[in-house]
């Protein structure tokens, strides 16, 4: 791996953008360490972190790591997760060179940040200036991370930060930014768990089974507007696209295609109405006829509850049926209110009546040229409920898609899988090393792992080892260097590769596993003996 | 108001940045319509919206508006909210000029976006090219919005979009972006509701009462790492800073100060330890002594649960007490696990024992030079519970602060106050006008308001009127033009002004109010007569 300290980090991601005009390159390249919002990277941290350089003991080296402490929504029966999102953080923040101006801007800010009375707040100005001067502005830490899309269980470190020498006290300054990996990993895990629901439904009721090409289109990302910000939509939307190809979140589909996949398409969608479209016409039939005229040979969707959902199914739909059939395409009916399960069944029955259906080899009905997408009130639970209900009503999974909005991109949080970054190792000024372990007796689930860590597959299961036990050879360690006091070349896989990794690893991984090695367990025991009680280890 | 079509929209927000070096200006100015992430504004929408230009009937004019349909967390007893966040969206997205390159990038994307098989997806290329050619790249709609910080009840439009002539079908293209106002408004409302809890607690137990200068520091934003993205932290963190001055989310404190407040300080914090600091020392006492040595004359905080919270309070704290007292500052103890209420009471009792307390005029104890901040598990409910519990234990509100992380910046969603944008008016190609109203019988709470809207104070309450009833004079209308096919000058108030508006309006507004005018109610009745049933209006 070649170090690229001299080159702007932007270039790394720019190389894949060659379909675009040169001016676009220039503009992106112009944004170095400073965000376009005018906020310098020197304040992209929690306030208290700016004061920590004065709070750590003098040290030669400090190491910290980040981990999810629990399965999705505390699920103990399935603690699998999809580690994802480190590339975004490194490319857009960590690997951006700082400039003197960034420090000047920080100075202007910190000088009135202390409470009360807006007096000066301490910050590590000399250290910032040192790495700007001596390291081309690149933040002076080493960062290891799991390959994007790696499937793991809770408690496996997803990244590890090392800072040495004078820069040791900066070890956790980036924690605030890096901790944000909780988000893409949570969405990627939720999306993949949703795919399990879809696959199971196809396995039971569809001729194509779980490998049907329809599966990858069956959960559509409707979450853009339910995001807090455009940046979130990109990060979360890409995480969803790891398990599905269907997305209306174009910010993410664009980013995944052109920034992460060499221009090869990633996300896709279909023409569809919204209420504003349906209500802008004098009648819903007029709106639907216009859809048929414009898009009737392909797949297209109409929302059906603008006024009276029952009437739309029983009167409007039959009134446009002949025109629809004549064009030959596939119409997707979208309920958008009421009980989700009931709404889907109503639409299936109405469509069956109007367009007819055939029975597949498993005995389930497949409606001719028409299906349903439920995009209101969808989460993992309602998806499962609907899949069950349509099966009981005799309909194949082929007939139904799901749209998940806020449920997919916003209704997760750092507690969903309990993410935290903690210090694990220090070498003091005098050369004395110490493994470090938080072990609060008030919440034994919040203990952290002691010592520098490594991750190796044992029986296919990514398992955590002490890095100093000699059990993990460098080439076996899943924690790979992704940043070394500057960006590295060749550390990122393209999006298709990440998708393939996730697809292969997820199903191969048992739902739960004992993933703490005996040697690490022993180290934990030693730490406990130093401090207190037994934390809640897997066994 | 002067139109500034010829000038880059970035300049508007740049004028306040004059404390910074010129190069910083240049870099920000370089980012026009394209995000630094390389995603053009031409795809910052839901996929289906790109197809709507083919789905609307031919029209001379179309109008849509955005509203929150319910109070915070469906609270029917208090439907107040703080309208906030339109400035961010306008300055950073809506008012950015598009370029030909943005359209070329869109073309490259849309040409493989159709499902299945990655075929071409329709998008309004001719309309995009037209406004780039004829309107300097500015999106050709008119946008009205409430002044930032305006306190309203649910159902008051927070913005209204108008598109005319050939551009009518673009009326709702920006809906995806604009709808994101749900987020800052939800956080601003949650933060202000939290302040109500703090003020009530001070009113009951503190000498200073609800107007105590301590109040504005009593809810600290701990939410940066719990955000999904840096951009979210800025948007949500600023919303919190409207009601409090205390924040560790420096991205937001910086943005509020330098981009929204002419450089005048907005947010503040104190030096504080984290677990990594406490555990990096051989003992917690050593870590605390170091804090006292470095920050002991001011306010500073130590987290107390790294190993054994009880022991830290009963043994470590007394062991550093003399040194602490000697320095004269204010030590804040931070529990971080266990039951929040219990943890706070334990710390208060321990501090009382170690440092002593005095009784204030209301009979409550104020500990000498020491207090507690609870930053784990905090939301509105736990805040109220703790405030109640410390009162029952005889401690004044002066002793306790709160830190809210994910609870403040992430655990809200578009359903928290039910935000939606809907079309309300159209003038068809032939000149025939029609008011438009979504009224799903399957969820009467989801009805929208018909016709072009205006907002006027009636008895202090922002009330919704039909714009065509003649009841609202232009100068009375709270919906003010903030973008008119290009940025406008002088439409934004600085942050201090917005803070003051919120402070004045929130307390003056009754918790609930009938805010739909009789004339709009009549219009709703007429629409219902056309379509169906009575929606769930306030009366």
Automatic annotation (TrEMBL), chains A, B:
Gene3D superfamilies: Aldolase class I (3.20.20.70)
InterPro entries: Aldolase_TIM, DUF5598, N/Namide_PRibTrfase, Nicotinamide_PRibTrfase, Nicotinate_pribotase-like_C
Catalytic activity: beta-nicotinamide D-ribonucleotide + diphosphate = 5-phospho-alpha-D-ribose 1-diphosphate + nicotinamide + H(+)
Main EC class the enzyme belongs to: transferase
Nicotinate/nicotinamide phosphoribosyltransferase domain ranges (all copies): 218-452
EC number: 2.4.2.12
Pfam families reported in the protein's UniProt record: NAMPT_N, NAPRTase
Any one Gene Ontology BP term: NAD+ biosynthetic process
The Nicotinamide phosphoribosyltransferase N-terminal domain, residue ranges: 42-142
Keywords: Glycosyltransferase, Pyridine nucleotide biosynthesis, Transferase
Pathway: Cofactor biosynthesis; NAD(+) biosynthesis; nicotinamide D-ribonucleotide from 5-phospho-alpha-D-ribose 1-diphosphate and nicotinamide: step 1/1
An MF annotation (GO) of this entry: nicotinamide phosphoribosyltransferase activity
Family the entry assigns: Belongs to the NAPRTase family.
Protein's name according to its UniProt entry: Nicotinamide phosphoribosyltransferase
Annotated gene: PLESTMB000554
